[in-house]
Amino acid sequence: MAVEHNTREIEAGVVTDLRERMTYGSYLGLDTLLASQHPRSEPEHHDELLFIIQHQTTELWLKLVLHELDDARVQLAADDLGAALKRIARVKHIQEVLTQQWSVLATLTPTEYAQFRGALASASGFQSAQYRCVEFALGNKHERMLEVFESSPAEHAALEAELHRPSLYDEFLRLLARHGHDVPRAVLERDVTKAHVYTEELVPVFQRIYEAAGEGRDDDHWRAYETCEELVDLEDNFQFWRFRHLRTVTRTIGEKPGTGGSSGVGFLRRALELTFFPELYAVRTRIGQ
Asked: Please, is 131 exposed, middle or buried when counting C-beta atoms within 10 Å of its C-beta (0-12, 13-18, 19+)?
């Protein structure tokens, strides 16, 4: 049956006089947001807008990831494991979106990108302060990274604050210690401005948690076990994101150096060797032996 008018009438209750009212656009600040894309190529290349929006949306999601990781650590410090797990679960969903976004940028062919890449000059994702804050929040800390942001006081201050703050893993290990798990004192008192490194003495702690949860001993071991698996999910997702980044860059620029001066794909490939929670992977070798 044909639709006679193929339109939808505006319901009587819908507000149409928006003078002096909060609107969708004003609430979201769309005037500013949608006016923040400034292609630099001359003449403007069609595909540069894709490149800009891809990275801007990534930065918005990273802002939310930091918001959630910030509160997850607050909740762990307060022994509210349920709230912390809720925050981590949301981060995992954001990570999935961020990974899927690479498929959009991968539609940019080498020829298309080459026509405006020069407009980036020395700009590079390496300079993303929020990305570095996320890495620091998860435990991959490197004090020299602060040098990159010396020209931006606000970004430098944010990264420096993360450098001196316990990571998500630090807070989880402290929670385990408060709940009677035999976390080594050296781990609890470590210098949190340094990257966490593999600590053999932690592996038996996690082995007992996994084995006790498997035997259904008590809720405390089960919640700790659940958190371990959530952290493994978090790291796996991060590595998937890194890998998709590597593959997208490889198919777009090949072995060319990065615009920020890095070696390009070689630099990204080495990032795949970094880990946040090494003992949570090492324990898998021990279980069942």
From this structure: middle
